[in-house]
Structures are given as structure tokens and as C-alpha cells.
Amino acid sequence: xxxxxxxxxxxxxxxxxxxxxxxxxxxxxxxxxxxxxxxxxxxxxxxxxxxxxxxxxxxxxxxxxxxxxxxxxxxxxxxxxxxxxxxxxxxxxxxxxxxxxxxxxxxxxxxxxxxxxxxxxxxxxxxxxxxxxxxxxxxxxxxxxxxxxxxxxxxxxxxxxxxxxxxxxxxxxxxxxxxxxxxxxxxxxxxxxxxxxxxxxxxxxxxxxxxxxxxxxxxxxxxxxxxxxxxxxxxxxxxxxxxxxxxxxxxxxxxxxxxxxxxxxxxxxxxxxxxxxxxxxxxxxxxxxxxxxxxxxxxxxxxxxxxxxxxxxxxx
Length: 316
What we know:
Blueprint: E1 12-14, H1 17-25, E2 30-35, E3 40-43, E4 46-48, E5 54-56, H2 59-68, H3 73-76, H4 81-94, E6 98-104, E7 107-112, H5 121-131, E8 136-142, E9 145-160, E10 163-174, E11 181-189, E12 194-198, E13 205-207, H6 214-230, H7 235-244, H8 248-274, H9 281-292, H10 297-312
Antiparallel strand pairs: 1-8, 2-6, 3-4, 4-5, 6-7, 8-9, 9-10, 10-11, 11-12, 11-13
């Protein structure tokens, strides 16, 4: 009998912050601290803990459980299933201390250290709404991963007549222990709503979910949000320089290689048909961010970061 893991949460996107908050409010997480020895593998893909109710578990959470008993999925996935379950159960019985089981819709989505600051994606969205004056926002959620991009009317740029870009924030988090809380600068081109992530030295903030009180970590978003915006000075000049700077052969080749994985075969062909060494850096920036909008979260963000890197290269 193979493992019967619970289905992972599919990718969803909201174009309104209040809509995203309402959606996550209907899918609240539940955290339970239990002794490792009180976790029982009742059947393949299911666990029982606390009150003894059997719950389905995702593959990701099961891999986390293996980590806490010093096993790897790669080492056990081809093993005899009853033997594997028995080995894991024995190690759980011998493991001291507690583990944090995070569930949603009665499914175990994550198994975490008790030192993990139990901040949720809903906490992050609510904090962003309260502390960051976002005029436009997009929220994508995928397997516990949250990405919020938003801009403010306080910061705008115009590298060319009539071409308006707004400045703001990209906030990412993973409530299943798969990523840190981070904030970066974000630019949104209003004419076609394509955006770019800008890693700009100190403007990139990353916070692990340890060593914080939950309220302190959430409230800190306001402080780092203001710092992120304050460092966007000079962006107008860099954008203008992008419009005046040719890609050149070397940068054109390097950019094509860097973006090939996220673009895919057809996307690479379009890239080479659309851009030449004589194209401006701003043309390349707009091409990558425009085509990124049709991609899933992973390749979309990768292309937006590559485009933001072009802007970063304009720093003097």
C-alpha cells in the first residue's frame, strides 16, 4: 500500500487585499503543541495526535516529520512501507520534546519546531492593511507560500512621457515553515500592470520565524515598510538611464541565459525575436515583466527579480 498523502493547497490569486483577507479568514490554521511520542502514524498518509483523531497529512509535512527524527524522504520512499512506518514511529517514541502541528481543514499541513514563531499569512495580510497604505495590491497563495505585492500613491516615477510607475512593496512569507518573512521594493508599471522586484541592498529585509514574539514580528512590518519606501529615492534617474542605455551583445546574451528556465522554450524564442543588442535596457525590463504575468508564481517572480536586477545595475 503506497502513501496516500493529502492534496496540496492549489495556487490562488486575489486582486484585492480585503478579498484575500476574507478568503484566508475562512481557512484559519490551528496550531497544536504535542509531545513527539504522542504522534502516531495510524496508516500511510495519516497521523493521530492530541485527542487521538486521525488526520490526513501532506507530503511536505511528512517530510518535515522525517527531518525531526533524522530521516530523509529520499532514503525511505523506496523502502518497505510497514518497515518505514515502524521505524519512524520508534524514533518518535524515543524523541524528547514537543513538535508544533499546524493544520488547516483538518489536514496536517506542517510539522514545525516549538520555537517557530506561529505567525500566519492572514496575520501578514492584516498587518499590511493596517500599516501600509497600498493603493493597488495582488495576493497569491500557494502551498503555504504568500506573496503580496502592492504600491502606494506616495511614490511614482516617469521614465518616459506618459509611462507612469508606482513604487511599493513585495512581501513574502510561508506559514508552513518553507520560507522566511521578507520585504523588497516593488515597481508596478500602470499602463499594463507588469511589475518588478528590486533587491536594493539594505532595502531587502528577511526575518526567520524564530527569536520573535508573534506580535513583534507582525508589527515590525510597519517599520521596515517605511524604510523600504524611503530608499526608493533616485529610482527615477535609474529608470531614465535604462531608457537611454542599449543592452549590448554581452548583456543580451547573459539576460537570455538567466531568464531561459523561467521563460521556457517558446519564451526564449520570443525573447530573441523581440529583443536585440540594440534594444534598450528598459525594453528588456518591460518585456520580461510583461511575459511574466502569464506564468505561475515561481517563474513569474523569477522573471520579475531578473528584471529588477536590470534596474539595480543602473546604480552608480
